[in-house]
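Wed. Picked up where I left off yesterday with Sugar ABC transporter substrate-binding protein. The coffee machine is broken again, so keeping this brief.
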Amino acid sequence: MRRRSFLSGLLGAGLLLPALSGCAGNSANTLKIAYQQWGSGKVMENFLAKISEQFRLSQPDIQIHLIPLVAAENDYFTKNELMMSSDATTPDLVFEDTFILKSDVAAGYLQTLTDRVQGWEPWQQIYDSAKTAVTGEDGKIYGVPAGTDTRALWYNTDLFRQAGLPVPWQPKDWQQLLADLAVLKKTLPEVIPFNIFSGKAQGEKASMQGFEMLLYGTESTLYDEAQKKWVIGSKGFIDSLSFIEKIFSEKLGPSLSRALDANLTETVYTDWLPKAKLAVALDGGWISNNWVPQAPGEWPEWSSVLKQAKMPTQHGQAPGYSTLAGGWCWALPTRTKKADLAWEYLKTISTTENMMNYNIADNGVAVRKDVAAQEKYRTYTPTIQFFTSLVEGATFRPALAAYPQISAAIQEAMEKVMISGTSPQQAAEAYDAQITGIVGAEKVTKGVAK
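Structure written out below (tokens, as returned):
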């Protein structure tokens, strides 16, 4: 069932709203701010507590009600949309994943910020690629980016030396990457050579950090911007599925039972990487958050053991690497009655110093030139300059209204070839049929290259 239909059913049945309405008051002097909380993490809560202190200096009568939604990614989207769909529960300011933004715009949940950002200095500091991620299909602005992320290969230098592989390491293409993974498998049989998130249990991580890191390293693309159509029948799609098939059929990745475990992320970050059970991980720049002092997988030596390499393009073609960028933004729900007040709060969030402090605390990549230029930002972690350098060549997902369903279809195609019995060609054909059914035959085009 599509999530929109699911939400409508919940609302029609009167379900879930009573529980949600109890989490925030509707007082005229209360500002409600909703955001995702990852487990017991307090990065955003601590950040917003400081912002609220600053805000009350000029607005002493306003109470700030923080609404942390502790949920996995897809569940967060559903809870957030459910709140925004009712006058009784809507937040006044909400933290949105740019991947879901245009879907929420299409559903009428968010109001435009176009007039508000005109002439606003912080907006001028945001990289154009990040602005694109918060621009709707109507050309209007619907969010203020807070940070982005990029992805690359993390590799264990100790294991590489044991396997006789070069350090530093930078594979030139997929063929060399696969060959080096085969060397790791042969020389270090107790070590998992490679982790790439794949399959339905991994959700959007599989689509973005897995499949699209491959696809955008081919000559194909997921969505043709010129034609405004989704691409089907592309060679790059089949080649990307073939890469996934090879990883699992040749046992270059985790066992299927581990790869399809919904808790794989925690296992990778707090066990496999710090305990040298995994040689190479295709992952984001933020993962060292797991190893800092007092973190779940505290690992003081991580920066000397783990190094980074760019994910190569399929044949080493320009620009030589592929990376996907995502990120989150702040947005104003359509139903809020306190849009002006919420905007003032967002302006407090958006000072150079506050955004720098947030990016550092979140181990994120800056989307603003003024923040990226700060010495404190440039030196806060050993990897930040590497991951920031990838932004220029980054691809942002086609965050259109249909993308969440497209993403789910990608995960299904990946899982089919992981489990075996379905060829990459067959899985791609099934994907093509699904996409045509989702968006309509008039919204697809065959085999378009970049």
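Quick read: Confidence is low (pLDDT under 50) at residues 1-25.
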